[in-house]
Amino acid sequence: MTEHPTGSGIDAAATASASAPASAEPIVPTSTGLGRVLAWGSWDWGSAAFNAVATTFVFTVYLTGKSFGDPDQLSEFLSWTITAAGIVVLLLAPVLGQRTDTSGRRKLWLGVNTAVVVACLALMFFVQATPSYVWLGLALLAVGTVFFEIAGVNYNGMLRQISTPKTIGKVSGLGWGMGYVGGIVLLLIVYFGFIHPDVGLFGVTSENGLSVRVSMLIAALWFAVFALPVLFAVPENRAMQDLGRPRVGFFRSYAVLGRDIARLWSTSRHTVYFLLASAIFRDGLTGVFTFGGVLAAGSFGFTSGEVIIFAIAANVVAGIATIAIGTLDDRLGPKPVIITSLIGLVVSGSLVFVLHGGGQVVFWTLGLALCLFVGPAQSASRTFLGRLIPPGREGEVYGLYATTGRAATFIAPAMFGVFVAIGGKQYWGILGIVVVLAVGLAVMIPVKGKQDQLR
Question: What's the confidence (pLDDT) of residue 446?
């Protein structure tokens, strides 16, 4: 059983609520089983189908292309669509996470939410390259984003089931790294199999966007296959049903959530400060990848094929950095990793804007520098919170984490859209992302990481 030092905000909040019977205490693993870790990480590997192919380097680039209208206007539509999806998740994530804790059905809901994302990916096949289909494409992105983020709450909640306090940084880094490597493999398949050749596999061509549309079918199959191992290898969180936390109705869950947040605020404000800081900077991290491909094509003259080549290189850099830095996370604690990464992101992003006239060389150089810092910041942020959560509260607290951070994906897209509107050019959106990252860094610096506890 994992010990949580007195004074940990979340732990104190848990103690102040109902006390669990000793027999009902969930078992925290004392060793890391490689099979379960790889099965868990396989979901991250498969999630590249949505992260890399749908929202970053293929479908969003396709949807903001000239076939659908004015690229600058379409970029604004995309930003507001993701904003709307983020608001929906903001309202739902913590309550749904809380309910999976008390119901003991975390794995079930991971499977259900993942299935909806797979369906959205498959339906993107029907988005033909004409303006009349742009709203179908945006709607599928919005729905897919909502269910993907909710699935992520369930997935993150499993981290403590398959790692130990001494290995959580490595395990989290391995999962993020597998996601990036999975993105590389899938993008290679999509690029060389369908997008790059004039006539791809099965006679697919680019006419009416068919090469991209078929790629979305491949992405759907990819996610469906690689999401399965975690559903078989990692046990359901059934013990959570007996932790003394009553199950309540859906709307009543909001009242319970409100009390838990108030208790958290009174017992450990720095935990709340971290949630707020990560809300800002993780949204900026998401923005880097969400708009990376769009900027490469719209502002730096990359063709669709060149965007995918850049994406492959970006995933290589991000994957290697994330896996390697996981060891430092366990040794030094996650806060130094987060701060260093955010500084690197702000500097690199600012240089992309200032030097944008340098064309593709600038984007290649500084874009890869950005990718060097994104993965470690994401992984360390997940472990920062994961080390503090008491058993039985994973879904609820990661739901708050999703709500206040990556789930609140409206901040960076909105800032991107605002700066595009101010500057009149797409590349101005880079400044919007940099501002979000800089504010997140400023809020994160004074947060007390309690490194003795986090190591």
Answer: 87
What DSSP assignment string belongs to 390-447? PTT-HHHHHHHHHHHTTT-TTHHHHHHHHHHHHHSSGGGHHHHHHHHHHHHHHHHTTS
Please identify which residue in the block is written with the tokens 């108030």.
262
Report which DSSP code applies to 199: S
**Nearest by Cα to 303 from 53, 65, 141, 78:** 65
8-state DSSP, 52: I
pTM of this structure: 0.73
Q: Tens of pLDDT along 199-213?
A: 878 888 888 889 999
Q: Which domains does the chain have, with CATH numbers?
A: 32-235+247-454 (1.20.1250.20)
| 290 contact partners, CB below 8 Å, separation of at least 6 | 55, 56, 60, 82, 409, 412, 413
DSSP characters over 332-349: H-HHHHHHHHHHHHHHHH
Q: Which of 371, 406, 383 has the alpha carbon at shortest distance from 336?
A: 383
- Residues making up the chain, counted from first to last: 455
CA distance linking residue 386 with residue 382, whole number of Å: 6
Q: How far apart are CA 127 and CA 134, in angstroms?
A: 7
Residues 319, 320, 322, 323, CA torsion sign: positive
Q: How far is it, in rounded angstroms, from Cα 370 to Cα 286? A: 12
Nearest CA-CA partner of 417 in 439, 436, 435, 432: 432
Contact (Cβ atoms closer than 8 angstroms) between residue 94 and residue 313? no
Amino acid letter for position 336: P
Q: Please report the pLDDT score of residue 239 as a whole number.
A: 53
Would the pLDDT of 439 be above 60? yes
Triad 419, 420, 424: Cα angle to 5°: 120
Residue 373, classified by CB atoms within 10 Å of its CB into exposed (0-12), middle (13-18) or buried (19+), is buried
The dihedral of CA 157, 159, 164, 167: what is its sign? Answer: negative
